[in-house]
Amino acid sequence: MAEEQPKKRVTKPKEVSADLKAAPAPAPAPRARARDAVAVPKKPRAAGRSKSPQVSAADRQRMIAERAYYLAEARSFVGGDCQADWYAAESWIDAHLSA
After folding, report:
1. Does residue 72 contact residue 85 with C-beta atoms inside 8 Å?
2. Residue ranges of domains in the chain
3. 6: exposed, middle or buried (Cβ count in 10 Å: 0-12, 13-18, 19+)
4. Residue 51 · residue 97 · CB < 8 Å
5. Nearest to 90 by CA among 64, 60, 72
């Protein structure tokens, strides 16, 4: 004889009150007003200085390696040339660092 599986117990979901007055409405978040903002003067930049901060050689090398990896990943690591990926990544990173 096959053993009987115990019956699962089913419970009814609890009723939720539709009384909107019972639950208080959440307080609106305070909004910033234009007159409350304080203007902070910007420091003048030296002429010829780039917008981006200086990047160390190690950070630049890491960024190039990461970009070259993503270029190879985009073609599913099939075919292509890893050296060409590196040069493309190097020119892309240098262009974005000088901007």
Report:
1. yes
2. 53-99
3. exposed
4. no
5. 64
Reported as a single tens digit per residue, the pLDDT across 77-99 is: 998 899 999 999 999 999 999 88
Query: What does the pLDDT look like over 26-64, one tens digit per residue?
Result: 666 555 555 555 555 555 555 554 555 689 999 999 999
Radius of gyration, CA atoms only, the chain: 31
Q: Return the residue matching tokens 């200086």.
A: 54
Can you spell out the DSSP letters for 16-66?
Answer: ----TTTSPPPPPPPPP-GGG----PPPPPPTT--SSPP--HHHHHHHHHH
- Which one, of 13, 93, 66, lies nearest residue 74 by Cα? 66
Angle value at C-alpha 46, between 41 and 47, nearest 5 degrees = 125
Instruction: Round to whole Å and give the CA distance between 11 and 51.
Output: 64
